[in-house]
């Protein structure tokens, strides 16, 4: 499709309009014609800035992640607490745009966050984390934050505080007792999960797994 001779809109305005549509109307309502209507331009005008829907969605994903504040770090900062705070900020950024959460799964390229990953790796190095465990932590934290937050968003009804819904204490007595004993909110459970993951990975530093036992574990 040919592009108009003069741009009528900006990339940032298009991304902002896209997020507004997704936030208020949901992903099903999103399309290039719908965005063009929101901006009061023709659909062809969007092609000045975006080759196709995928490129626009990638920019939307990038914009959403800029809402995740990277905490300040200085000498003496507890690196575990720093990563807990970063993970919480990542979670909060997703929760601010619940309808757009799946955009991050499909369209967020990791290369746009390489600078942040580099900073994280330096903090891990400063904290004495062995180099062979740093990618395990960086990869795992991102996946945990995204997966657990999506799980929270997909509860029915949306926003429900029930961890496991429809538990019958007669049919599921052990689970019912566990739920009754749980005193943590979903946010607190998220923090516990992050801390548990970090503690588990750090345990590998003191009890390293041999290549042979790792192959046995993976079944290869």
TrEMBL record:
Gene3D superfamilies: Tetracycline Repressor, domain 2. GO terms for molecular function: DNA-binding transcription factor activity; transcription cis-regulatory region binding. PROSITE patterns: HTH_TETR_2. Keywords: DNA-binding, Transcription, Transcription regulation. Residues 8-68 form the HTH tetR-type domain. Residues 31-50 bind DNA. InterPro entries: Homeodomain-like_sf, HTH-type_TetR-like_transc_reg, HTH_TetR, Tet_transcr_reg_TetR-rel_C_sf. This is TetR family transcriptional regulator.
């Amino acid at each position: 499709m040919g592009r108009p001779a003069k741009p009528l809109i900006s990339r940032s305005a298009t991304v902002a309009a896209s997020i507004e549509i997704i936030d208020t109307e949901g992903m099903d309502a999103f399309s290039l014609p719908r965005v063009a209507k929101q901006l009061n331009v023709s659909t062809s005008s969007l092609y000045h800035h975006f080759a196709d829907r995928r490129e626009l969605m990638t920019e939307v994903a990038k914009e959403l992640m800029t809402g995740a504040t990277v905490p300040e770090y200085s000498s003496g900062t507890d690196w575990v607490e720093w990563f807990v705070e970063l993970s919480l900020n990542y979670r909060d950024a997703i929760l601010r745009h619940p309808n757009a959460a799946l955009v991050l799964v499909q369209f967020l390229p990791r290369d746009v966050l390489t600078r942040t990953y580099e900073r994280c790796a330096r903090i891990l190095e400063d904290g004495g984390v062995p180099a062979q465990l740093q990618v395990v932590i960086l990869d795992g934290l991102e996946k945990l934050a995204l997966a657990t937050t999506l799980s929270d968003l997909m509860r029915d009804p949306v926003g429900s505080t029930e961890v496991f819904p429809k538990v019958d204490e007669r049919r599921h007595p052990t689970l019912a007792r566990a739920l009754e004993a749980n005193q943590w909110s979903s946010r607190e459970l998220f923090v516990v999960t992050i801390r548990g993951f970090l503690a588990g990975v750090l345990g590998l530093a003191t009890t390293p797994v041999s290549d042979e036992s790792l192959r046995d574990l993976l079944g290869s």
